[in-house]
Specification:
This protein is 18% helix and 24% strand. It is built from eleven helices and 31 strands. The chain is α+β, with helices and mostly antiparallel strands. The chain starts with 39 loop residues before the first strand and ends with a strand. It is globular and about 75 Å long. The chain folds into three domains: 40-319, TIM Barrel; 328-413, Immunoglobulin-like (Sandwich); 420-543, Trefoil (Acidic Fibroblast Growth Factor, subunit A). It has an eight-stranded parallel sheet. A six-stranded antiparallel sheet has the order 9-10-11-17-14-15, covered by helices on one side. Strands 19-23-24-25-26 form a five-stranded antiparallel sheet, with no helix packed on it. A hairpin with a 5-residue loop joins β27 and β28.
Length: 544
């Protein structure tokens, strides 16, 4: 669903360390029996927008089967916005548009099921869908006040997947959690296993990256809508290209697990504009990030190149691995990223992603991605299937915007590389480093506050950056003692790199100054500054 410019951006996290720490996500994944691996399927929006009807959807289901997409794992056929009659019936029930879907939605679901596929449908939690909000489709058929009724209707039609799209500037993130949970519970009450997909970002501040939504939904959108471009230089704002979305989604790896996955939006593979190299990177990065693989192209007329990408069995196997882990960045800078994803059989999938404008050699080691204890390791190229061996170096010449993926076997495998998310507790006060009022605007100055475990007190230490609410802890360039510490869009700069020292202090790598509770005060709302490192109690922090 196309989303318009919104109010809040979420930063890029560029890492520079090969260390990794295991930690549990803060929310448990939704235990509704579905989404144990990222869903795979097709959605009507990217190619057809509102121009959908019964014949089109049935024909697409036919093509998913005849093209071999179903056998490759693509099972959900998701009918996006504009399927509904603009008016509910006299009992308040949703209806299919009688002109577009004359046989009705249950008949459509039956047809899809008859092809060995699953039926997905679109809804909205407030009064209107996105198309209705923007006046491109009539009516106001959102589920607000009809959650239980609509859930029962979906179940009666045989729906297997609900895409639920916020589409309003109103509501706090807590309002969103409450509202999305209302449909979660209504779906559960039907007794039918329905995969629950939510998007909190539509026409709204970008709340998707601000919490682990795994307690609410099976998959949750993390970014603005995907567009058919590589890079628009947006942080998390409309329009979003492939590169921009990767920048936002990579740091959220700790949230993914069976039953709950970050959703960087539907794929643009096979829709033109992107080069073959960029389309391969798009698919490879979605696979390594344990993202839903929801195709958005016209399945009926795919080129051989498109089919080669979308049906790649080695990348699909990496994506569908039963551990349900998202690949974690173990090294990287503005030009490149190295991601590692531990797999159920002990292998590790490694992606070497070239973000730069020229071919470059990208290298890592078996040890850096969690493999040890062997004199040699087997590398299977996920694109070619070719097998090579290495004593430890993992390296490739990668074209601009390209991604090389290896499946690494041999030796023993460490715990999965997951960024550590902790509270930072000031020794002098016992209070936590806090983003005041969860204000994610650039230049917001952190303070100390009573520890409460909320997201605005959780700091993800990935490489040498510290991130909260999608922003990075930032020290001004050329900082002197007393300089204000802030949160800012993540840039990968040295002024956003920090070192935890043995005496409990946290040192800014660029300036050499330490995080300091201003003037050794201990009251709530005391600001955080930089100061010459002394090791005093107001400069000591404990991670918990």
């Amino acid at each position: 669903m196309r989303l318009w410019k919104a109010m809040l951006a979420v930063g890029i996290l560029l890492l520079s360390s090969t260390a990794f720490v295991a930690t549990a996500p803060s929310a448990q994944a939704l235990d509704n029996g579905v989404g144990r691996t990222p869903p795979m399927g097709w959605n009507s929006w990217n190619t057809f927008f509102c121009n959908i009807n019964e014949s089109l959807i049935r024909g697409m289901a036919d093509s998913i089967v005849s093209s071999g997409m179903r056998d490759a794992g693509y099972e959900y056929v998701v009918v996006d916005d504009c399927w509904m009659n603009p008016n509910r019936d006299s009992s308040g029930n949703l209806q299919g548009d009688p002109t577009r879907f004359p046989s009705g939605m249950k008949a459509l679901g039956d047809y899809i099921h008859g092809k060995g596929l699953k039926f997905g449908i679109y809804g909205a939690p407030l009064d209107r869908t996105c198309a209705q909000y923007f006046g491109s489709y009539p009516g106001a058929t959102g589920s607000q006040g009809h959650e239980a009724q609509d859930a029962r209707q979906f179940a009666a039609w045989g729906v297997d997947y609900l895409k639920y799209d916020w589409c309003s500037p109103s509501g706090t993130i807590n309002d969103q959690v409450t509202t999305f949970a209302r449909m979660r519970d209504a779906l559960a009450a039907t007794g039918r296993p329905i995969l629950y997909s939510i998007n909190s970002n539509s026409i709204h501040s970008k709340t998707g990256p601000q919490r682990n939504w795994g307690d609410v939904a099976n998959i949750w959108r993390t970014t603005e809508d995907i567009q058919l471009v590589w890079n628009t230089n947006q942080v998390n704002d409309y329009p979003m290209g492939i590169q921009n979305i990767i920048n936002v989604n990579v740091p959220l790896a700790g949230y993914a697990r069976p039953g709950g996955f970050n959703d960087p939006d539907m794929m643009e593979v096979g829709r033109g504009t992107l080069t073959d190299t960029e389309q391969r990177s798009h698919f490879a990065m979605w696979a390594i990030m344990a993202a839903p693989l929801i195709a958005g192209n016209d399945i009926r007329n795919m080129t051989a190149a498109t089919q080669t990408i979308l049906k790649n069995p080695r990348l699909i196997a990496i994506n569908q691995d039963t551990l349900g882990l998202q690949g974690v960045q173990v090294a990287g800078d503005a030009n490149q990223r190295v991601l590692a994803k531990r797999l159920a059989n002990g292998d590790v999938a490694v992606a070497l992603f070239n973000q730069s404008g020229a071919t470059r050699t990208i290298s890592t080691t078996a040890e850096a991605v969690g493999k040890t204890g062997a004199s040699s390791y087997s590398l299977v190229d996920a694109w070619t299937g070719a097998t090579t061996t290495t004593s430890g170096t993992i390296s490739a010449s990668v074209p601009s915007h390209g991604t090389v993926v290896y499946r690494v076997s041999g030796g023993t495998t460490a715990e999965p590389p997951v960024p550590a998310s902790n509270s930072l507790v000031s020794t002098s006060s016992g209070r936590c480093l806090d983003v005041p009022n969860s204000n994610t605007a650039n230049n917001t100055q952190p303070v100390i506050w009573d520890c409460n475990g909320a997201a605005n007190q959780r700091w993800t230490a990935s490489g040498q950056t510290l991130q909260s609410l999608g922003r990075c802890l930032d020290a001004p360039v050329g900082a002197a003692p007393g300089a204000k510490v802030t949160i800012w869009d993540c840039s990968g700069g040295a002024n956003q790199q920090w070192t935890f020292q043995a005496n409990g202090t946290v040192r800014a790598n660029q300036s050499g100054l330490c995080l300091d509770v201003y003037n050794n005060q201990t009251a709530n709302n005391t600001p955080i500054v930089l100061w010459t490192c002394t090791g005093a109690a107001n400069q000591q922090w404990t991670r918990r």
